[in-house]
């Protein structure tokens, strides 16, 4: 028995076309025109709808521990929110404590993810380049984890040096793995923070003023120089500053890629001047910037100077954000449910780019960079039948009360977005219908990622993908 989807407009990174889909055993079996069902088939009428590949969010933080507190969403609620927003695959992070065995941390994280509703994978965070760490990279890759994150920030907890970064890059290249970099100038940020506190500046806006945009650009330059020498596929995560985006955009000949997030496209630093905990609710790192940075990021997304949009989803309850000064506020915003709607509104609806370009940014490119393509991120024969049905004539109100995550606040509360996701399939099964998430906790599967391909990475840079027929 097959499922036949008829009448919709199929959208891929290559463009869009009216076509039908046949799905069997959780995978796309055939893409064609005027496909006819037999008596055993079910038929889904998608007339008037866009049919998109399920979205891939390669940067979430579910059940993230900071000291004695945890982020608001675990893998159950976080992946429910993801499905409601059209995201069928997430890639989260394993962050070992210093001195903890990384592979033990991976196994513990897999246990925490057993109630996921979406398919999922992980990146492994690294704090040094010791032989034990490099051996852990080998073992993680054998388990299907081919993303390794390092920080040029947080010298008291996570930061690696440029030399350590290069040694990690060398091993990742051998493994066909991706390096992800949190690119801020850690020592400079710490100096500015200490200076601000000494001068009595404790307000939330100083979170932004002690992390100026130029220091983000300076850190990205260090990474770009390393990529030029090492030729390791590398993503700068959560790009917020135009200086950083320009360096990435100018590195067209390098396997250097840029990710930004919805908050850096829609929210400006004036949010950090709001009263009390309302300002603290907008703390994230890097911080929100001014409107000129937001405008520049939209431009780089349209030109593929930046290559994908993920969320860095990591909200904390408001009560946990009350702090005596800006340095003690746990940072992170929600976004996994609202990402698609915000990017459709700002990108397609406002004429910055096409639906197929939106698919590149939210689905195909993160799938390629994560080693999940073409199993995920495409509508091709053999790909998983992860599909999103989108009505461009509908609308989507955003309300904290109706969102599926557990955050008690949302920066987009009260907005009404154009368009509406009316249904979602994961591996051929209906997991969201009419706004109701019906996937059960634990339905998700851990996905082993494949070694990165230079040919596929070149598609991300160029925006040119093969026609599926």
Q: What's the arrangement of strands in the largest beta sheet?
A: 8-11-12-13-14-15-16-17
Rounded to the nearest angstrom, the distance between the terminal CA atoms is 24 Å
Strand content: 15-25%
SSE-based structural type: alpha/beta
Classified in CATH, the superfamily of the largest domain is Metal-dependent hydrolases
Total separate domains: 2
Can you summarize the main beta sheet? Answer: 8 strands, parallel
- CATH level-1 class of the largest domain: Alpha Beta
Uncertain parts: none
**CA-based shape:** globular
What is the tally of helical segments?
14
Q: Would you give the CATH topology of the largest domain?
A: TIM Barrel
Structure description:
- The structure is a single chain.
- The chain has 469 residues and is an alpha/beta fold.
- It has two domains: 3-52 and 385-441, Urease, subunit C, domain 1, CATH 2.30.40; 53-369, Metal-dependent hydrolases (TIM Barrel).
- Helices cover 32% and strands 22% of the residues.
- It has helices at 75-84, 102-112, 131-142, 162-175, 186-198, 205-209, 213-230, 242-250, 262-266, 276-280, 291-302, 339-349, 355-369, 454-462, and strands at residues 3-6, 9-12, 15-18, 20-24, 27-32, 42-45, 50-53, 55-57, 65-66, 69-70, 87-94, 119-125, 147-151, 178-182, 234-236, 256-260, 308-309, 387-397, 416-426, 429-433, 436-437.
- The strands form four sheets. Strands 8-11-12-13-14-15-16-17 form an eight-stranded parallel β-sheet. It has a seven-stranded mixed β-sheet with strand order 3-2-7-18-19-20-21.
- α8 runs parallel beside α11 (291-302).
- The model has no long low-confidence stretch (mean pLDDT 97).
């Amino acid at each position: 028995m097959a499922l036949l989807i008829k009448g919709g407009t199929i959208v891929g990174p290559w463009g869009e076309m009216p076509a039908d889909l046949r799905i069997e055993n959780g995978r796309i079996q055939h893409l064609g025109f005027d496909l006819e069902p037999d008596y055993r088939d079910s038929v889904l009428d998608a007339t008037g709808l866009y049919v998109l590949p399920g979205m891939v969010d390669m940067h979430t933080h579910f059940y993230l521990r900071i000291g004695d507190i945890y982020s608001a969403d675990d893998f159950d609620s976080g992946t429910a929110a993801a499905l409601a927003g059209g995201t069928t695959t997430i890639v989260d992070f394993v962050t070992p404590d210093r001195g903890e065995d990384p592979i033990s941390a991976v196994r513990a994280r897999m246990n925490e993810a057993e109630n996921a509703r979406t398919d999922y994978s992980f990146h492994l965070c690294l704090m040094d380049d010791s032989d034990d760490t490099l051996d852990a990279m080998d073992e993680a890759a054998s388990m299907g984890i081919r993303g390794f994150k390092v920080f040029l920030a947080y010298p008291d907890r996570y930061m690696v040096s440029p030399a350590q970064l290069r040694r990690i890059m060398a091993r990742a290249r051998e493994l066909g793995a991706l390096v992800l970099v949190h690119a801020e100038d850690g020592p400079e940020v710490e100096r500015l923070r200490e200076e601000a506190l000494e001068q009595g500046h404790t307000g939330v806006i100083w979170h932004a003023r002690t992390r100026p945009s130029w220091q983000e650009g300076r850190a990205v330059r260090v990474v770009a120089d390393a990529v030029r020498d090492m030729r390791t596929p590398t993503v700068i995560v959560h790009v917020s500053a135009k200086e950083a985006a320009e360096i990435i955009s100018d590195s067209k000949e390098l396997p250097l890629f840029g990710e930004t997030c919805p908050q850096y496209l829609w929210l400006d630093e004036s949010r950090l001047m709001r009263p009390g905990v309302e300002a603290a609710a907008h703390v994230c790192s890097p911080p929100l910037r001014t409107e000129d940075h937001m405008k520049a990021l939209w431009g780089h997304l349209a030109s593929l100077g930046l290559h994908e949009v993920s969320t860095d989803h990591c909200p904390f309850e408001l009560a946990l954000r009350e702090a005596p000064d800006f340095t003690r506020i746990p940072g992170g915003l929600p976004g996994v449910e609202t990402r698609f709607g915000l990017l459709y509104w700002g990108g397609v609806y406002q004429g910055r780019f096409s639906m197929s370009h939106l698919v590149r940014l939210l689905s195909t490119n993160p799938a390629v960079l994560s080693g999940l393509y073409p199993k995920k991120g495409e509508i091709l024969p053999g790909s998983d039948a992860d599909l999103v049905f989108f009505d461009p004539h509908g609308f989507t109100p955003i309300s904290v009360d109706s969102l599926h995550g557990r955050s008690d606040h949302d920066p987009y509360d009260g907005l009404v977005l154009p368009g509406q996701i009316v249904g979602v399939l994961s591996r051929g099964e209906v997991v969201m219908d009419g706004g109701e998430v019906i996937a059960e906790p634990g339905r998700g599967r851990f996905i082993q990622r494949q070694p990165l391909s230079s040919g596929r990475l070149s598609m991300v840079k160029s925006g040119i993908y093969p026609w599926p027929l």
